[in-house]
Amino acid sequence: IDLDTAKKELEEFIPHVRSISDSSIRKMAGRDLTRFKQFKKQGISVRFGRFSQKENDQIRKNVEEFLSITGIDSAEKLLFTSRYPEEKETISRLKANNLFCEKLSEGIPRPWRLIYYRARKMFDSNNYKGRYTKEEKEKLKKYHALHGNDWKKISEMMSRSNLSVAMKYSEIKSAINYGPWSKEETQKLMQAVEEVIRKRIETEDAESLSSSTKSHRDLLIDREKLCQKLPWTEIEAKVGTRYWRQCKQKWTTILTKKMTKGQQLYRGTKALQAKINLIKRLHEMELEDSNEVNWEELRHIIGDVPRAYVQAKFYKLKVTCVPLWRKKSFSEIIDYLFEKKLPELEAKL
C-alpha cells in the first residue's frame, strides 16, 4: 500500500504514527498492519510500555521454536548474527526462508521492532555483566570520542550490550550532581518539561486541530500532559547536570507538591491507611502482572497525586517488606503483603 494509506490505517492502532519516519512506517505496514488487524478481530488492542511476564515467556517460546525449526544452535546467533561473520550468510538465509519476523512476533500484540529489541535484550549475553569498573568507564568515554553514538561498534569493543553502553554513557558523560537540587537546576528541569510538552502539543495541533482551538488546549496541559510519559533522555540533556532518572524523580516530587497544594498526604496515620488500602485493592484485582495495574485508578488511594508517585510508594513497600522480592512473581508479592504485612499495618494503625 502507498505511504498515505499506510499512515491512515496504522493511525488506528498507533495514534502517534505521523511522528514516525516514513521508512519506519513502510516497514510497519509490511510487518505489523496485518497482525494488528487480526488482533483487533480478537478484541485485543496494541500494547506499548513495559513487557509483561506473559509476553516475555511468549518471546522465549517463539525463539526456541524458531531455533528448533532452523537448526540454528543459539539465540545469540539468531539475534546477533553480525557477531558470527563466518555463519552470517547461512543464518540470514535460514531467517528469511523461515519467516523470522512473523515467527518472532507470533501472539504478541506489539510493533515488531519493539518485540525484536526486547528479544535482543533478553538473550544478549553481554547484558548481564554487573557494574562498570572505573577502567571501563574511561574506555567508554574514549570510544565515544572516537566513534560518536555508534553504540553497535562501541558495544562490540566493550563486550557490553548496545543499550547498556548507551545508558551508561548518558549517565557519565558530564559531571552529574547527586546532592540536593539547586534553584537553577529545578528551573531548568521545569523549563525542559514545558518545552517537550509544548512541542508535543504543537505537533498534535498541526495534525488534528484548527488554530482556533489551540488557546483552549493550553488550558488542558496541566492535567492531560504533565503526568504522561516524557522523553527523559531529552530532558536530561536540557538540564545538563542530572541523570535522567533523577530528573524523573524530581519532576514527580514537583508535580505531587503542586497537585496536593503542599499537603502531607503520606505521613503518619495517613501513610499507614494508604498502605493498607493499596495492598487490599491490589489483592482484590487478582492480577498476574504489574503491567496490568491501572495506577491512574489507584492514585486516589493516597490523594490527588501523580500515578508515578503511587508506583514509587508501592516499589518502596515491596522492597522493604517482601524478602527476596526479586525472585517472586507480582502475584506472590501481593499475596505476601496481604497475608503477612497487612495484619501488622492494621494493628499499628
Residue share in helix: 55-70%
Runs in which pLDDT lies below 50 for 5 or more consecutive residues are: 209-219
**SSE arrangement, N to C:** HHHHHHHHHHHHHHHHHHHH
Number of helices: 20
What's the mean pLDDT score? 84
What is the rounded distance between the termini? Answer: 63 Å
Q: Quick one: how many beta strands?
A: 0
Radius of gyration: 23 Å
Secondary-structure-based class equals mainly alpha
Largest sheet report: none
Shape: globular
**DSSP strand content:** under 5%
Walk me through what this model shows:
This protein starts with a helix and ends with a helix. Mean pLDDT is about 85; it is low at about 210-220. Helix content is about 65%, strand content about 0%. The protein has about 350 residues and is an all-alpha fold.
List the helices and strands and how they pair.
Layout: H1 3-11, H2 22-31, H3 33-41, H4 53-70, H5 75-79, H6 88-97, H7 100-104, H8 112-123, H9 134-147, H10 151-158, H11 162-172, H12 183-208, H13 214-219, H14 221-224, H15 232-239, H16 244-259, H17 268-285, H18 295-298, H19 307-321, H20 330-348
Helix pairs in contact: 1-2, 4-8, 9-10, 9-11, 10-11, 12-15, 15-16, 17-20
GO biological process, one term: termination of RNA polymerase I transcription
Domain Myb-like: 124-172, 173-255
Domain HTH myb-type: 129-161
In short:
The protein is mainly alpha-helical.
Keywords:
349 residues; 20 helices; single chain; globular; mainly alpha
